[in-house]
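Incident log, entry 3
Record: DUF983 domain-containing protein (120 residues)
Problem: checksum mismatch between cached and fresh output.
Input:
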Amino acid sequence: MTDRASPPWWQVALTCRCPRCGEGRLFRGVLTVNERCGVCGLDLREHDAGDGPAVLVIFLLATMVVAAAFWVEFRFSPPLWVHAVLWPVVTVPLALAMMRPLKAALVALQYRHRSSEMGV
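Fresh output:
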């Protein structure tokens, strides 16, 4: 299969599918990348996003949560315990929801831009 038939990176990110064929599952479990695509056989062991998704989640989510916390504080002036209960309940699920698509996007971009170096 050629690169032209590969799905765009954003589609790989949203579907968490193979960056070459767009059909095989990219993950085994929550965040563990499969060793091979079950459909096209692409070796995914070399395509590792490392800490990139975590850094992106920290930067993006922290900006959103801090802005929301300021807005809640200045708009409603709740007691401190409300902040202590509210923001972990909001932050943890959002961080988990953002991590998987961001990791898939980075794996897809890595496949797209480094495939010639890896002998794919």
